[in-house]
Amino acid sequence: MSTPRFLVTQEIPEPGPSILREAGEVDVRHGMSAAELEGAVTSGDYDVVLAQVSDRFDAPLLARARIRGIANYAVGYNNVDVPAAAEHGIAVGNTPDVLDDATANIAMLLFLGAARRAHEASEYLRGGHFTGLRPDLLVGQDVTGATLGIAGMGRIGKAVARRALGFGMRVLFTQRPPHDREVTREELGDLADHVTQLPWDELVRESDYLSLHVPLTESTTHLVDADVLHRMKSTAVLVNTARGPVVDEKALVRALRDGEIFAAGLDVFENEPAVEPELLELPNAFLLPHVGSAEAGTRAGMARMAAENAVAMARGEQPPYPVQP
Ligand code: 8YV
């Protein structure tokens, strides 16, 4: 067998590079345009691409691709047309489980930051406006005793539920909005006695905090649109650590501006890395640049899994972490 050749589209942390170098030749080509990625993938120069979620592999590209596999450095894989990849014998892998806690942690940070006006408070202080305590200074929303609605009770949704229970919140969820299916007690495991499943419409109405943990698919694109935002409580906080297009960003800007909801905490954006300019101006939007999994140990774990996937794919073996659509 010839030496495997890996294309890495962004530098990843150890042990990723060591695992790849031990198995073959590694080419790190940071910042490739879509045309450059297409050229590389169709050139026959590489066996496997270790990819980011910003690298798009659609059906026309996959039809012309001369690679054995795509090892996504992410749990999400909406950047790959998985059925088209399967049709052309291209394996696809991801990095599940390892980033659940980190992503749940960032969801909590967004909740608290948006509810307690952390961004505004920090700006206020740094702007030299803090001249003394005031009872009306930067009053936010209550967290303890409030109701959290979780859209998507998968691994990350469950990790958020456990944290929210620790904060004394009531936890409701819809498993697979907008069209739910009933979840068994076995599936809920340790959470079975502590969380309640509701239809999506009711979840929207009941939630003081609505946190999104669904994959991006056709049915979840603009799951949170103008109509949903309108039906949320005016005191509600929306949190998105999933994928930007799950929320209609323009409608969200209007809802935040017009006080239809209290605040939003967002780690992902509809047209990443671009962000609706108006969103950047709104004090009640607490925004982070897609750092959900950015904890050192988590990223090392993701790097190991993606590299192990890539090596197995290059050898024509079943990857240890194949995507499970
Ligand atoms: C990013 C993510 O991939 O895992 C996912 O689906 O969205 C993130 O973890 C990460 O920021 C690496 O670039």
UniProtKB/TrEMBL annotation:
GO terms for molecular function: glyoxylate reductase (NADPH) activity; hydroxypyruvate reductase [NAD(P)H] activity; NAD binding. One of its GO terms (cellular component) is cytosol. CDD domains: GDH. Residues 110-292 form the D-isomer specific 2-hydroxyacid dehydrogenase NAD-binding domain. PROSITE patterns: D_2_HYDROXYACID_DH_3. SUPFAM superfamilies: Formate/glycerate dehydrogenase catalytic domain-like, NAD(P)-binding Rossmann-fold domains. Keywords: NAD, Oxidoreductase. The keyword Oxidoreductase applies. The keyword Transport does not apply. Transmembrane segments: none annotated. Residues 7-323 form the D-isomer specific 2-hydroxyacid dehydrogenase catalytic domain. Belongs to the D-isomer specific 2-hydroxyacid dehydrogenase family. This is D-glycerate dehydrogenase. It comes from Kocuria varians (Micrococcus varians).
